[in-house]
Amino acid sequence: MADSSRFQVAPTSGVGGFQRLASQNLPAPLSSFVGREREIAAVGELIGAHRLVTITGPGGAGKTRLALEVAARLAAEQADGPWWVDLADLANPALLAARVIRSTGRPVQLDDEGRDQLMQRLSARAALLLLDNCEHLVPAVAGFVDELLRAGSQARVLATSRIPLDVEGEAAWPIPALDLPPSMGEHACTDEEDLSSHASSRLFLERARQARPGLRIDGEAAADIVDICRRLDGLPLALELAAARCRSLHVSQLRRSLAGSLDLLSGGQRTGTSRLQTMQASIDWSHNQLTEGERVLLRRLAAFANGFTLEDAQPVVSAAGLDPALVLDALDTLVSHSLVRFDDGINGAARYRLLEVVRQYATRRLRDAEEEQSIRDRHTQRYEALARTLGPRLESDWNEAVFVRMSADVDNIERAIETLCESGDHARAAVMLWDTQHLWGLVRPAAADLIISRLVEQPELNAALRARMHVVRATVGSDAGAMSTAFRSAAAAVPLAESAGDELATARAHVLQAALLTMAEADSAGPMLRAAIEQCDKAGDQTGAGLGRVWLGVCVTIFQGSASRGAPLIEEALNQPSVRTNPGLAAWAHCVLAEMHAEHGALGSAVEEAEQTEALLQRIARVLPIGAEGFLRTSVPGSVAALVRGYAAILQDQPPLPGVDLEAVSLRAAVDGYPLAGYLYRFLRGLDQLRTRNPAGALADFEIAERLADEAGGWFAANTRMVGAFAALSVGDPSTAATWLGRVDADQLTTTMLRARFRVIRADLALRHGDAAAAEREAHLELEAAAAEGIAHETAQLLEVLARVTDDDGRPVEAVRLASAAARARAERNLRLGPPGHLDPVHRMLSRARTDLGEELFETYWQQGASLDLEQAVAYARRSRGERRRPVCGWDSLTPTELQVVRLVAAGHTNPQIATQLFVSRETVKTHLRSVFAKLDVRTRAQVAAVAVGHKGG
Fold it and tell me: GO biological process: any one (predicted)?
């Protein structure tokens, strides 16, 4: 804040021997001023351009503090003032001039002549007058200001009021809420540093520390504070009163208690203005300025949740005591009194909203008037009609205007459904949920799931409605990535819908059941999907048919692992109007293409398709009233696109999604009902831990991801367990790797990519246990299939396994050629990285071969391998396979790894020391020694050393 030496009050003459210190009387600040730099600049510019600027806003919005800060920063530019005139406790408007005279220290009489002198002096000296808290004296203040401004062209006025003064030339400036911290997304707050970058959370944190100096902030507390700030709409007084409660409440308790925040938000500073010691008193102050009709309107608006339009408000609030013709004027007054907020909305759809604390206040007034039930019933009828009219238009085709309307009112729709459930009218609630089914998975899946859980248990629901509720749950679940729940719901819907003769619900249930079966039984799901698509076409369900066509492409491309057959199906789906014109379905199709390209190592194409996916989702996100960034991150196509971009970056040794807190996004997505997104971001974080050589951290992430994968689907669980095995191998722990791999259900290995990964790990484990023959068998089981399907990354890994096998067999030339061919495949696709547990042994093998062969020969064989493309390399590996050339016993039967063990034993190393040098476990060393003892026909380490001494190089 400005220099406090300027905030001194002094008499205007030498009375009592005191001299004037400064021609202003701004009060010294008693607490820190937080944020508002943009607002200070904006108001400062307005004062430079207008002679009257009024900062408007609700009680507790920080109008006085902002005005004082602006005035303090302008003080050095003023010939006279700034003069602060606090009108909060002035009840008699006739005493306004006297209050100004006293505040400015002008020695004039309190008569008409003295008033004229005051006007002339303030104007002549270009005074800046700060008239604070004007709302209860608006007519008197307006008259005074108008007279002052007309008395000369020099004086300027900065006023604060809950209501504009409506004086000619006035620039009314509504004070915005303090900057709110985001609840999720790439900038989500996870610690104290993040909280301090947003004014509302910084203010809360500072005031909470004043109440409890030892307050500690961890990730959970940071999330609680974010929620508190957002629930209180960034209102400074509410935040300060809430923060004061931290002296006796943990922030998590405080967050849970905010449902009754009016009771909680009390206990302000005893020396402060009484109306600012509680939020109740602050709102009472505004309420008392209203007419009876305006009070009726305010309390009835409490029925709305998070905003409304004028068209929706009129039929709801226009009951006894409020003429429909007066609603607009009364609403305008509430806006001008800062009790209702107005904004242009999306696409010019004007909306109004009560701050949460005002809504709670109005709810109490509604109950006191015994109108709550009747107004809630009218509210329900309004949004039931909206759902019935607009919902089917989203069912038949994508309609942006309809989606804008319904997504803006999702809270009102949810409240209406809750009202019906509370009144026992479950059938109407079920119909309303069916009509709005395409909304919930995109914006509120967790809420929909809770409602459906309640509805399907109601005995009065007939089979048709019960079937439709299961279809809705399957639709919402698939949209949100809760694939296991969605599949169970679709399966439950089929017999119910068929028994009820509901053709539409039956067709949609069959499509969803077949679609969600793809992740477990892709071969069976394909024919089922084709049949379900025909069923939808016959039922006239173009949305269901389009969904089925996209999922058929998903089934064949990803879960059957055939890009050559699947990609044309995706393109065919995109050519269908029901898919092409629907950005959500089209985004699904493009994210599948992105994943397909990533699996084939075509990273450039993968990223292009991911970006196309995100561009389509932006069409939906840009019209969401709130949570646009969260939607982009957590929708199924959005999270898959993020995974693909992140995975591509990791393979090129770059951090994934720079600036995104992957852990925070994963946690929030899981809490908000998007389990697939929760899984994918956690999985991506584990991959990045491997990239940065933190396998222990990666294992911890994969353990969490494995739990999340159970809801996302079995395919994801299998993949996670295999990558967990890779992470265990990275720390030289084949036992833990085998445990991870043992949890893989063979039935979940539905694609060539998964099977190839599985074989890579089994081959690696076999090599670590000294069984090169088994490793060779494992690698060849999927090598040709992976190459034929174009799965470049896994094909390269299988070649690298075979390079180690041939090296183990004493064929370093072939080993170098195979490793070089794999390196070429990686380089051509910019696949710089792979699992450290897999690549590290390859690098050690090549280092050894370079030493044994010599630099020149090594480079010759390396260039020979590099001349092979992937298909030629696979053919070379196949030709190289045959009877192992090494004897079964004697010195020449020892593998290169066993020779290393022998040399280290001869040098006197212990098993733990050998394990450290070879980057293997102690159990692996024991396995190698047992093999050495058997091949050399010896029983002790001393005998091994003696045999080694007898051989050159031993």
Answer: regulation of DNA-templated transcription
Do 633 and 733 lie in one domain? The reply is: no
* pLDDT reading at 185 higher than 60: no
Strands of the sheet containing 156-161, edge to edge, are: 80-86, 127-132, 156-161, 52-56, 170-174
What pLDDT is attached to residue 12?
Answer: 35
| pLDDT, position 19 | 33
**Which residue in 715, 769, 790 sits closest to 745, CA to CA?**
715
What is d(CA 4, CA 1) in angstroms, rounded to the nearest whole number? Answer: 8
Residue recorded with tokens 């089917």: 392
> Which two structure tokens, joined as six digits, stand for 271?
């020396």
Print the domain residue range for 341.
289-370
Question: Hunting for tokens 């091994």 — which residue is that?
Answer: 944
Contact assessment for residue 539 and residue 552, using Cβ atoms and an 8 Å cutoff: no
Query: Residues near 75 by Cβ (< 8 Å), separated by ≥ 6?
Result: 2, 6, 22, 24, 26, 81, 82
Reduced to 3 DSSP states, what percent helix, strand and coil does the chain have, rounded to the nearest 5? 70, 5, 25
Average pLDDT for 303-332: 88
Residues 105 and 135 in one domain: yes
Nearby residues of 39 by Cβ (< 8 Å), 6 or more positions away: 66, 175, 176
Rounded distance between C-alpha atoms, residue 384 and residue 600, angstroms:
49
Instruction: Indicate the SS3 state at residue 128.
Output: strand
753 and 786 Cβ atoms separated by less than 8 Å: yes
Residue with tokens 């092409």: 580
| Beta bridge pairs of residue 131 | 85, 159
Report the pLDDT value the prediction gives residue 21, as an integer from 0 to 100: 36
Six-digit token pair at 678? 């929760």
Cβ contact 812:858 at 8 Å: no
- pLDDT tens string 769-810: 889 999 999 999 999 999 988 888 899 999 999 999 999 888
Q: What is the percentage of the chain residues whose pLDDT exceeds 90?
A: 44
Where do runs of H (alpha helix) occur along 301-455? 310-317, 327-336, 356-368, 372-396, 400-408, 410-422, 426-435, 437-443, 445-455
CA distance 810 to 791: 29
What CA–CA distance (Å, rounded) separates 384 from 403? 16
Count, in order, helices (H) and strands (E) of the chain: 49, 7
Residue 733 is assigned to a structural domain of this protein: yes
3-class secondary-structure state, position 610: helix
Spatial distance between the Cα atoms of 782 and 753, rounded to a whole number of angstroms = 9
**Which one has a higher pLDDT value, 532 or 927?**
532
533/750 Cα distance (integer angstroms): 23
Structurally, the chain folds into a number of domains equal to 7
How far apart, in Å, are the Cα atoms of 108 and each of 105, 156, 405, 643?
9, 20, 60, 74
CATH number of the structural domain spanning residue 795: 1.25.40
Percent of the chain with pLDDT over 70: 92
Q: Which of 353, 370, 387 is the last residue of a domain?
A: 370
CB distance 480 to 445 below 8 Å: yes
- pLDDT tens, position by position, 822-847: 999 999 888 877 777 788 899 999 99
Residue 82, CB-side half-sphere exposure with 13 Å CA sphere: 27
Do 152 and 11 sit in the same domain of this protein?
yes
Main-chain dihedrals φ then ψ at residue 80, nearest 5 degrees: -145, 125
Would you tell me how many other CB atoms lie within 10 Å of the CB of residue 901?
Answer: 28
Q: Are 21 and 8 in contact, with CB atoms under 8 Å apart?
A: yes
Instruction: Evaluate whether residue 735 is within a structural domain.
Output: yes
> What are the pLDDT digits (tens) for 883-908?
555 666 788 778 777 888 898 999 99
> Where residue 952 falls among pLDDT bands split at 50, 70, 90?
low
Give me the sign of the Cα torsion angle 796, 799, 805, 807: negative
Mean pLDDT of the chain: 86
Mean pLDDT of 27-55: 87
- Judged against a pLDDT cut of 50, whether residue 271 lies above it is answered with no
Give the Å distances, CA to CA, from 416 to 298, 335, 339, 419: 19, 25, 24, 5
pLDDT at residue 140 above 50? yes
